[in-house]
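Hi team,

Below is the intake form for rRNA 2'-O-methyltransferase fibrillarin from Esox lucius. Please confirm the fields before the structure is written into the shared record.

FORM ID: S-0412
PROTEIN: rRNA 2'-O-methyltransferase fibrillarin
ORGANISM: Esox lucius
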Amino acid sequence: GRGSFGDRGGGRGGFGDRGGRGGFRGRGKPVVALFVLFNTYRPFLKLAIQRFLESCVILLIFPMKGVFICRGKEDALVTKNMVVGESVYGEKRMNVEEGETKIEYRAWNPFRSKLAAAILGGVDQIHIKPGAKVMYLGAASGTTVSHVSDIVGPEGLVYAVEFSHRSGRDLLNVAKKRTNIIPIIEDARHPHKYRMLVGMVDVIFADVAQPDQTRIVALNAHNFLKNGGHFVISIKANCIDSTAAPEAVFAAEVKKMGSENMKPQEQLTLEPYERDHAIVVGIYRPAPKSKK
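The structure came back. Fields below:
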């Protein structure tokens, strides 16, 4: 009889078993046949490999609530997607099985988000967590705002303030699908214009890149930040003083914060993700220490 993959006779050829010229002992045809077989089943093999790789994704809980590290082919900082099936800025989404349910996570790019850069840079705490009420100054088109929305979840709120009407249009589109975002298209220098829209908040995050940014944050803190609440400020040295060394600019801004009842607790630069940027984290009107 014919040997499989052989060219003539040969009993039980198979993959090189004994018996005639079966198996890989033919004269070239077995290689062609194997190539055809591989191409025929390649889509199925690709799907099987993809599913295997997906099943190998390991989700690590980060010290910060609501933020995770996804371990797979490449490690990624991720947040749990509040709007399943939707990307905001073309970011990757990944499904992770937890028991019988699949949960979708969104990759958080540190090159497009100062907050993500600070987290991966090793900041101890951002104070943004599930259920928190956050004021975001300098919301732009909503890239980072969407991840803050993921973190605070349906029980939290994000008051997203953006002055540019062009960026504001994109922000409004993001907010349409994320009910915990309240978009405010106003100048953050004038918090009285939106005081009727905003309640007291737990955290203020600011990425306004203006020479008077510490004053802008302070004005909003005096109006909306709880005593003992926290602030996270991204400082771009060039926007404040392009002639001074970045370290001198950061030190001057930290000094200004102290005069506004804003007590800095932590500072770090954002290299390698951003040049001449720093993040300052602190507490607003901390409770006086009790004397023993």
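SUMMARY LINE: Helices lie at 29-55, 114-121, 143-152, 165-177, 213-224, 237-240, 246-258.

Thanks, M.
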